[in-house]
């Protein structure tokens, strides 16, 4: 489960997995009464009384925004914002388009996906895995494919695309890169596979179309990284390990949370990459993103792209801090 506050409406968005066991055997994701496999939208600024919680059949201390898609519908729970998710693993709002809500949804057997989440949208699971029909074992409560109108992913990949030695794949959703630290990456949606050891950058063209082109972006560790990036002999890429999540700070810089540590995307020149925009006017003191948002090389994913990163926190340090905290009296 992950929670987020909507930057435009201030409501709390709660991402719920389908409750587990392979293939959603109880069909929670399409169940109109279960909160599992849904994205919920809650108002926690206006709290109900204890009586109202009982009367309205709420699950906790929140109220339901009146403009939730099913707030007036008896069949569906009023908390729903979207349904038919399997395991939304990292969702984010585009900081430049605060209504643009993107979720990566972890697949079951074959396909990992990225969805643009819209009000009331049904993302198909477990009738579909990505754009493909999924055939769960029949059980009471199954949803016929022709009874739903699924929204298919805007990005995705087959497990076989990343399945190397680990035997599986699991997507880790990220962010639209809106920092000017790497102006050549500006506007791209970054995401990763847990096992993949590298990251994809997807460019949307035209904007707001949901039409993405994606490419892998190899990682390189800057020579002046404050923490020495671990590496595999004979491989120029840092050995980041499992990439489980991303973060964004107030400057819109992007962090990568991996099993080997925490990394930050930095200026390309720190890895000796050339990004013609890095020294342009847009990247100096006065930030004017419009100058970085032209559609020449920003949206051209055919240009080989790289991510220059530094390691800012080693896992051994995280563990050390955790040990210290745990050993305090
Ligand atoms: Ca789906």
TrEMBL record:
Pfam families: GSDH. Transmembrane segments: none annotated. InterPro entries: 6-blade_b-propeller_TolB-like, Glc/Sorbosone_DH, Quinoprot_gluc/sorb_DH_b-prop. SUPFAM superfamilies: Soluble quinoprotein glucose dehydrogenase. Coiled coil: none annotated. Residues 2-200 form the Glucose/Sorbosone dehydrogenase domain. Gene3D superfamilies: TolB, C-terminal domain (2.120.10.30). This is HIPL1 protein. It comes from Morella rubra.
